[in-house]
Amino acid sequence: MQSSSEAASSTTPETPRARKGASWLRWSSLPTVIRRSILLVAIVLLWQIYVSVSGVSPLLFSSPVDIAEAFLEGWISGELAGATLVTLQILGLGMLIGMLVAAVLTTFATWTQIGDDVLVLLTSMLNPLPAIAILPLAILWFGLSPAALVFVIANAVTWPIAINVSTGFRTVNPTILMVGRNLGLRGFRLVKDVLMPAALPHTISGLKTGWAFGWRTIIAAELVFGVAGGGGGLGYFINDARYFLRIPEVFAGLVTIALIGIALDAVFTWIERRTVIRWGMKSGT
Amino acid sequence: MKEREERHPLQSSDGELDRVTGLDSSKTETSGAPLLIVDHVQLGYVVEGRTNVAVEEVSFEVRRGEKIILLGPSGCGKSTLLKAIAGFIEPVGGRISIEGHELVRPGPDRAVVFQEFDQLFPWRTVSDNVAYALRVTGKEKREAEAAAGRFIEMTGLSHAADRYPHQLSGGMKQRVAIARALALEPLMLLMDEPFGSLDAQTRSRLQGELNEIATRTGVTILFVTHSIQEALLIGHRIVVLGQSPSKVEEIVDVRNVEDPDTEEFIEVRRHLRELLAGEGEDVNHAVFE
């Protein structure tokens, strides 16, 4: 027995981590997807068991089975799909406006000193401010309308995008800029063919941060709107479900929010893999 | 001409590449009117109305097909001078003219190869780095791709044509940069210590390859270095610059000095060493690099 295990360990060189796992099903040698799936199933199972066994009030907590049911029902009836669409539309419009404002600001910041000063001042003042904090003002200016939400989102995404893109432009490797000029590139062509691709890693991370800020902000804003009695997005859906004590639907709304967050993160990761990671401009994870 | 072909069999073996570069062998003669004239050039920067001079006064000429070295101690302004010839910096005094025209701005007629490995566009493959440069300078897409393929082959990188720069070694990156510069069919190649960041072995191999390519294409080269050895191996003539604010100490003709084992080579090397030593450069450092 002992001799056979010795022989095995001498033929396969193992890392300390692998050796530790060897006593228990070689956990670390399993593929990541499998490891995470097993953990997910375990957590959901524990959750289900807790709800079934403890007899916790269904008005406070829901079991995974009930949530799955509410989730499917919500999507089949179109209620969740509708709410998701409303939220994504407002977020998309807000991000579009934010990106345009950021583009204008960074253009001025790249070409003029005063533009740079303005951008630095504005970002240092407004970036640390949680975007949701201006919601009362937005409601005052735009009323309980989608316009107020769009305004808040645009404000949330403008600053991280602007600050990242302008850093990207400012830190472009001077040698590559000289190569571009050596080829006779000037003006817009130099910006399009050299500066913009060279700043792409920063641009993508700016969009990623901007989207994450925007996503958190819109849900928060919609919850407030839900309390105020308007809207129709995901935040409103959750608040509405709570009001009518449809607790599994509250959870189903949360699951939807989490899934969309994961999906959009995956989109950005995919874009990065296809571009900056493939080009060695950013190390992969 | 005859002598040259005997010394460098590559030139006669590959007429194709001579045609590609548009430089027929008659242009490799280092004669005729100077291609580049650097005339009493002063370089510096202006701070609060006062001019801080980096290069005091430099004059020299480069003829077609010639390999000219700018040799000098670190910080003597030789790279600055190369950047001025490339058109990135405007001289505070004097004039630089190429083919009789005064320089106005950077252009692909003076293709630059830098020392830094990151001079390639990381988002373009090896072949696309070269082909893009050709497209920008007015070639049709198909023509650019074909020419890129030929120049990549010339630098021995056909096997890596589809790789991205980050997948290449330092030596390979410099080869791509050289291929890209040559593909532009420039009036002259400006090389700013292109082998300065390479290990000794790769460096010496690339020096040999550069000499072969230069013979094959007849391209005019202005090469900046602080290594005497490199200057002697590559150059036809060496412009020795002094300490900043620098002047031309001497222009040494080393056309016939090629074999490192000859008495002549050692003699010239000693002379260059003394010139640089007078300028405070660490002698041993300069010689053995």
Oligomer: heterodimer
Give the helix tally of chain B. Answer: 11
Helix content of chain B: 25-40%
* Strand content bin of chain B: 15-25%
Low-pLDDT runs of 5+ residues of chain B are 1-29, 283-289
**What is the typical, i.e. mean, pLDDT of chain B?**
84
| Straight-line N-to-C gap of chain A | 41 Å
Fold and architecture overview:
The complex is a heterodimer of chains A (285) and B (289). Chain A is mainly alpha-helical. Chain A has 13 helices and no strands. Chain A has helices at residues 2-11, 16-22, 32-54, 64-77, 79-111, 113-126, 135-142, 146-170, 174-182, 187-198, 200-228, 234-243, 247-274. The model of chain A is unreliable at 1-15 (pLDDT under 50). Residues 1-29 and 283-289 of chain B have low confidence and may be disordered. Chain B has 289 residues and is of the alpha/beta class. Chain B is globular. In chain B, helix 5 packs across helix 6 and helix 6 packs across helix 7. Chain B has helices at residues 2-7, 9-13, 15-21, 78-86, 126-136, 141-154, 170-183, 200-217, 228-234, 263-277, 283-288, and strands at 36-47, 50-62, 67-71, 93-98, 101-102, 110-113, 188-192, 220-225, 237-241, 246-253. The interface between A and B is medium-sized, with 20 and 25 residues.
Give a short overview.
Chain A has 285 residues and is mainly alpha-helical. Chain A is built from 13 helices and no strands.
Structural topology:
The complex is a heterodimer of chains A (285) and B (289).
Chain A: H1 2-11, H2 16-22, H3 32-54, H4 64-77, H5 79-111, H6 113-126, H7 135-142, H8 146-170, H9 174-182, H10 187-198, H11 200-228, H12 234-243, H13 247-274
Chain B: H1 2-7, H2 9-13, H3 15-21, E1 36-47, E2 50-62, E3 67-71, H4 78-86, E4 93-98, E5 101-102, E6 110-113, H5 126-136, H6 141-154, H7 170-183, E7 188-192, H8 200-217, E8 220-225, H9 228-234, E9 237-241, E10 246-253, H10 263-277, H11 283-288
Parallel strand pairs in B: 2-10, 3-8, 3-9, 6-7, 7-8
Antiparallel strand pairs in B: 1-2, 1-4, 4-5, 9-10
Helix pairs in contact in B: 5-6, 5-7, 6-7
